[in-house]
Design brief:
The chain is α+β, with helices and mostly antiparallel strands. It has helices at residues 41-56, 102-115, 157-162, 176-183, 195-202, 220-232, 236-248, 323-334, 347-353, 392-395, 438-449; strands spanning 14-16, 62-69, 72-83, 88-89, 96-99, 137-138, 148-149, 268-271, 295-299, 319-321, 338-339, 342-343, 380-382, 387-389, 404-407, 413-417, 422-428. Strand 2 (62-69) and strand 3 (72-83) form a beta hairpin. The chain starts with 13 loop residues before the first strand and ends with a helix.
Length: 452
Amino acid sequence: MVVADIVLLDDQLFSNKKQGLEAGEQDMLDEVDPSVLGFSEERLGRITRWLELQVGEGKLAGASTLVARRGKIAYLQCAGFADKEQGKVFAPDTIVRIYSMTKPITTVAAMMLYEEGCFQLDDPVAKYLPEFEATPVWSGGDAPISDVTTQRTPMLVKHLMNHTSGLTYGFMNSNPVDAQYREEAIEFQSRSESLADITKRLASIPLLCQPGSQWNYSVATDVLGRLVEVLSGMSLAAFLQQRIFAPLKMVDTGFSVPEQTQHRFASLYAPKVGGDMSSVGGAATPVPQDERGGLVLQEGSAQSVYFEAPGSHSGGGGLVGTIGDYARFCQMLINEGELDGERILAPSTLRYMRTNQLPDNSDMAGMGQPVWSETSYDGIGFGLGFAVVLDPVKASIIASKGEHHWGGAASTFFWVDPEKDLFVVFLTQLIPSSTYPIRRELRARVYQALVG
């Protein structure tokens, strides 16, 4: 189906930035004529038609896209529903589950403590979390989980930041280690268990590989969140609120949704076919895109686990927020640590974080067997907290070297392009993020609109 065949959504389904900003309108970046920022307004319209297409074809219930350059918004549009069942439109102030887009924020928090001299990047994790001192390493291959060896070199703090720690995720479904995570219910978004207790249980499970030897997407940033707690003497939620969210005026970002803003919360959806996270990383053949069959509700917007404060704060995936809030975080990143007079990190620290940290400047494809993550592997390295583009040609994307990005399980995504002084934030609520190639399609439409 081509764009011309899609019936355009009515005014209720397609909104501009002036809708629904009663709680924090003053905190949005300024929107200006896109031509001043080097964008073709006509070509930006292709993003609008693409958003309409995603909703019109039933791939997404709703979504929002923000494109900013030189500190100003060139494009901000929303389409469709935050809650289809309730008829609630997706607006700029819609609050969504950002899941793994929490990871860069937690890593920034840790680097703030690094700047204060609380740790060194090559410190052993066990120096601060002694439960990891004796964590064994699975022997790999066809060996059972009981076949283990000792750590040849210790897990370092920097390994937590670049996903080379030897940890994994329970939903990967690819080896005995992630199976053990599932058996022992290693879930950092707990409503009853503390972050300290979950981390201690995790440390008793063998590592997937020797620390530093492979890149593997994992709960490492959740462990990093626990490290922030130990080093700061504060809960992760309190640290983020006092040191990042309040200074940056990220007024709707947190680990739960307060009662006064619950009416702005979005529902979570999955495709009718192939929407189970248990298929991620497994050997099963993916369901073809044209057989996904529309949407099925996973969690409504009226009743949610996010309406109650969690027992543990997941630094790897526990936050909710709005597109305006995350835009302010991205603007801080592209400003090299500062926004509106509030300095979060030094410029040298941000430049270091967006430098590839993998050995021999390798990409992720060269660091073990690609299983699954929120980015592709070829031509993509990893800094501290986000992926880094090393070779756009090898990655088969139009991008700048040094561009850094990450996404969340509900298909949210952001990227920051320092070379072009540009960033993009995309929010929706479709799980898993591997359902459709939304991120690559959006990239193409953003860069084709940049003409100056």
